[in-house]
Design a protein that fits this description.
This protein is α/β, with parallel strands linked by helices. The protein has a single domain, classed as Rossmann fold (3-Layer(aba) Sandwich). Helix content is about 50%, strand content about 15%. The chain has a 7-stranded parallel beta sheet with strand order 3-2-1-4-5-6-7, sandwiched between helices. Helix 1 runs parallel beside helix 2, helix 3 packs parallel to helix 4 and helix 4 packs parallel to helix 5. It starts with a strand and ends in a 6-residue tail after the last helix.
């Protein structure tokens, strides 16, 4: 049976990926930090049709955690055919005022862990000449975002890394796709300190819709998918508008409410 590994599976897009792939009868390996939340999502996934469910609570921001995760799947004889690198978070504020350790943790989770898990699970997919990797990027990866400088930079890395791998793996039987959502109503906003609405309501998509689009894009072999028409237009406009103008617009949108 095919097996899907989903990181950051305890909420938001990761949770919806679990449910969507459960309906497709995948075996699931779900990982995130919150053990109780993972267990609950695992129970729901079984009810939705998952062939099997393994939950592995782990903090992938730790440098050695991806290797631990890989070792546990090997010990359990789990052959991962479908990898969803979804774990990540954002921070908001003036960079010089943000906690350094939190910014480094953001890079470790959004970038380092994603690279490590991809590198660890990809060789077996290439050897089998079959596999799917979805890396969750963001429309923020298409531009610099003042007051979310680190987050946007990490997602630019994810976008370009995924697109490059897709080119390397052309004809190998392995698909790599970067999923680029815009605003999604999940826990992300609260964690990033974005409790107030910065975008009009029509821009927001629900997590289930974004996941359905991401899975369909990967199935069709697309290396990059921007979820939502408004987000697609916004991302494409960055190719033609002056960078200074794009930065000014983003600065006004994401400026903290205290004006600092």
């Amino acid at each position: 049976m095919p097996t899907a590994l989903i990181t950051g599976a305890s909420s938001g897009l990761g949770e919806q990926f679990a449910y969507a792939l459960a309906r497709k009868r995948y075996g699931l390996v779900l990982t995130a930090r919150r053990a109780e939340r993972l267990a609950a999502i695992g129970d729901t996934s079984r009810k939705l049709g998952a062939a099997s469910v393994e939950t592995i609570p782990i903090d992938l921001a730790r440098r050695d955690a991806p290797r631990e995760l890989f070792a546990r799947t090997q010990t359990a004889n789990l052959h991962v055919d479908y990898l969803v690198n979804n774990a990540g978070f954002g921070t908001t504020g003036r960079f010089e005022r943000l906690a350094l350790e939190r910014e480094l943790e953001e890079i470790d989770l959004n970038v380092t862990a994603l690279v490590a898990t991809t590198r660890l699970f990809l060789p077996a997919m290439v050897e089998r000449r079959a596999g799917t990797i979805i890396n969750v990027a963001s429309v923020a990866g298409f531009q610099a975002v003042p007051y979310m400088a680190t987050y946007a930079a990490t997602k630019a890395f994810v976008l370009n890394f995924s697109d490059a791998l897709a080119g390397e793996l052309a004809g190998s039987g392995v698909t790599v796709s970067a999923l680029c959502p815009g605003p999604v109503r999940t826990e992300f906003q609260a964690i990033a300190g974005q409790d107030r609405d910065r975008m009009p309501s029509f821009v927001y998509l629900d997590a289930e819709t974004v996941v359905a689009q991401g899975i369909a894009a990967a199935e069709s072999g697309r290396s990059v998918h921007i979820a939502g028409v408004a987000n697609f237009i916004a991302a494409q406009s960055n190719r033609f508008a002056p960078r200074a103008l794009i930065s000014m617009i983003a600065r006004r949108i994401y400026r903290p409410p205290d004006g600092r």
